Amino acid sequence: MQLIGRGSSRSGALSMRTLVARLTGHQSLVASCFVDELAHGFWKKERVVGVSQLNEILLALAYETVSDAFFAYVFRPDGDQGVQEAEFEAGVERFEQLGLLKYGNVKFAFKTLAKMTTEEIREEVGSLGAAIPPEVYANRPEPLLSITAIDPAETYFLGHITGEAVKKGPDAERKRRLDEVRRAGRENLTNYLCSDEMDVYVATSMRDVEDFFFVGTAIERLFEKPELAELKLRYFDPTQSFCEDRIEKGLVESLMLRRAKCTVYCAQTSETLGKDSELAVTLAQGKPVIVYVPTIQGNEERYRELCRQAAQIHAEIFNCDPAEYYRVKLIERHSKALGYGAGDIRGWDVEKLEGELIRLDDDKFQRSAAVLSQIHPLGIQVDLNTGVANGVLVTRTLSDTAYVVRAVMTNELKFRIERDGNGTLRLVEERTACTYRLMVSDPVLTNSFWNFYRPWIRRGRAGV
To answer: Is residue 56 located within the same domain as residue 205?
Structure first.
């Protein structure tokens, strides 16, 4: 992840007391001292601050002092002896970002790193902030076992519910094709299990024809995007594998979820406990979750085409008119909210049914995006190993999804610091404008959280 210090957009607006409070993660208890006299004029005439001057300021405000190595790491990685105003402010923001990314708490970051040597800081922080060259992925040897691509229009054969419907139907050719596709799905499952590397887990709900078709189409298009195609990523796509036993299927998905570096959660018109659990489990491992919520507005014709294809497949499997597909989906997805039943829409023609379904699906996706990024508490989960609060990254287009997945893989996510009116500190990912980390301002919550959580962290590091 790129640690980018922006500095202040209002030159001289931030006092030295404020900057040092941000650096240390908490306000000074000293009522007043000479630091309060260091107004904007302090920085005039090419004035610079080095480690000695910073330590004088820290002592006057009753903070701990810092080592030469800490000052160099935060403020002058290029080796200069001192920093001017803009560089100082940029260094403070860079450190806030690091503190939130690594520890979820700037105060803890300062206390941990302030006295360390260069070697100790390097060991503690590791490669945080260092970009991973795309060649690391692109130049990997090709796997010996490759996935046999199953057309999204046929992935419904791999579903237990949809597969049973085919078995009970009269179409002998479709039954024969079911056996062929499932054979390919079993082989794909074996290939996934034998893959030595796994980069991305794709979380989906797979019950109906459109679940397989819509999500399978989106996944196919996503990994064909130039940003990801170049990396040749290894990803687990549940719509391409088949497992007879539900318990074994759950174990397979749990394993893939644990191995992958991030999860792409494909929002659908209805969600399941299993998929929501996969989102929460990924965040609880401290890994990124990218939630792709489709945007229908501006893409109505494409969505209409997908709906018609799904309706045709549904009609063929269940031996009904395509219009019945739209009626069923309207009732399943939207009747409770809008208060109509099957009798109310029985006389509607296909065009009206289709238009209403597209409109209501768009409303649902709009709400889902807002809920996940701004409202629902499950949008933020705590890493069980570190106590760091992690947030989902919500995207509305496949292009944005590809950009964010690539940034995660190459460690190039870009952030900015935002402060709420109540004092909560947020690390916001720039492309999605979603909260990726946060440090709450409530002192009782903060104190209680870390007092109870810190022993668990210590036991985890000790292997207990």
So the answer is: no
